[in-house]
Automatic annotation (TrEMBL):
It is a single-pass membrane protein. InterPro entries: LEA_2 (IPR004864), NDR1-like (IPR044839). Keywords: Membrane, Transmembrane, Transmembrane helix. The chain crosses the membrane at residues 12-36. Pfam families: LEA_2 (PF03168). Coiled coil: none annotated. Signal peptide: none annotated. GO terms for biological process: defense response to other organism. Residues 71-169 form the Late embryogenesis abundant protein LEA-2 subgroup domain. The lineage of its organism: Eukaryota, Viridiplantae, Streptophyta, Embryophyta, Tracheophyta. It is found in: Membrane. One of its GO terms (cellular component) is membrane. Its main location: membrane. This is Late embryogenesis abundant protein LEA-2 subgroup domain-containing protein.
Amino acid sequence: MSSCGGRRGLKLCLIVAGILLVVLLVTFLVLFLVALKPKQPKITTKSVTLDRIHSSIFPKPFLNLTLGLVVEVENPNYGSFRYDDSSAYLVYRGGLVGVSPIPAGYQKARSTQTIRSNVTLMAGGLLKDLEFYGDLVKGVLNFTSTSSLHGRASVFKVLKVEVTSNCTCEISVRIAGQKVDSSCKTVVRH
């Protein structure tokens, strides 16, 4: 009789332990998938500044312009975010006039990183555009800056999400006051 009761108690103990184990596994799985699920890093252009400008129309048209870009990458994950080499492009009336490299990087969990970059104009493309001279006389040059950042967000090196962030900025450079106005929009895809 005692051997039967012992086996019955052992079976009951194993069943209860199994149920508890399943409940714990389901709880950890839900916690892992909901609370620790990799989220998209937030990438925003914080500022666009006019670092240097030199221009003249006569006797020969000349323009040397350098814009400073400050991009902020916020990683909301409980894991790291690693992004690849990229570039920021500066476009004037549909033509590429400047490129700035964005080096690959690594970002720790739940942190914010600031990336600073300079874009120097390739004035040759501007000087060939006939509308450029009219804009130069008006004192306002309008540019579009685009950048794309591709990377991977991971949690505990198990869950990984591929992320691509595209940022577009409309930039107005006021030559006389050497001021820059910008409006940026960021779209994140995975």
